[in-house]
Amino acid sequence: MPDPATGGILGPMRLPELHPADLTDAQRDLRDRIVGGPRGSGPQHFPLITPDGALTGPFGVMLHEPALGAPLQELGSALRYATGLSDRVREIAILSVAAATDSAFEQWAHERVGRAAGLHDTELAALADGRFTSDDTTEQAAYDFCRRLLEDTSHVDDVAYARLRDTIGATTITELVVLVGYYRTLAQLLDVFDVGVPDEQR
User: Across the strands, what pairs with 9?
Assistant: First the structure.
């Protein structure tokens, strides 16, 4: 039924889907940057656009507030395509956030990306259960650090920091801190606006 605050037709989420014909200039510019950027031009491990042209997941939410959505999607693009994180480490980190925040969309989307990055079904199940282990020192240190950041008391003391710096380096530490913060933000947006897995993918 129509939502009195927006005049739109509410679907499974709390914000109406925005279709190409509905967009303001700022929203259209943001949509073009999302669809025309590396997310839209690279391998499509999960649908970025619904059959009727709306953006899926957090991108559909970003479109409602382009002043915030534009820099937010740029940060996400940088984290996904411009860091020194290996594909496996990046997806291990993202899926650790998805598990800790119980984010159905992020888990659904990034399990698919994770498989393309070389994560096996047993590893994906372990990530979903919060019990991932790896023989690779960097992967294990990155996972343990992300889990620590996601705890309520996540203070990193000097001893823990020195150990982590010696294992993965200050640059990777920075990248993981920002990644966890970014994907926690997305998970909260998805939760607040009740955005789940697209109906056609269930």
Answer: 2
Residue 27 near residue 62, CB atoms below 8 Å: no
Q: What is the DSSP letter of 118?
A: T
Residue 151 and residue 65 in contact, taking contact as beta carbons nearer than 8 Å: no
Would you give the DSSP letter of residue 49? B
Residue ranges covered by each domain of the chain: 20-80+194-201, 85-192
Host H or E run for residue 159: helix 158-168
Listed residue (58, 64, 69, 65) closest to 33, CA to CA = 69
pLDDT, tens only, 18-41: 999 999 999 999 999 999 988 888
> Are the C-beta atoms of 20 and 53 separated by less than 8 Å?
yes
Kindly report, residue by residue over 119-161, the tens digit of the pLDDT: 999 999 999 999 999 999 999 999 999 999 998 777 899 999 9
> Would you call 2 helix, strand, or coil by DSSP?
strand
CB 81 within 8 A of CB 43: no
Mean pLDDT of all residues in the chain?
91
- Of the candidates 112, 105, 91, 129, which has an alpha carbon nearest to the alpha carbon of residue 56? 105
Please report where in the chains the tokens 């789940």 appear, as a residue: 196
What's this model's pTM, rounded to 2 decimal places?
0.90
CATH for the stretch 85-192: 1.20.1290.10
Question: Would you state the pLDDT for residue 6?
Answer: 37
Residue 9, classed as helix, strand or coil, is strand
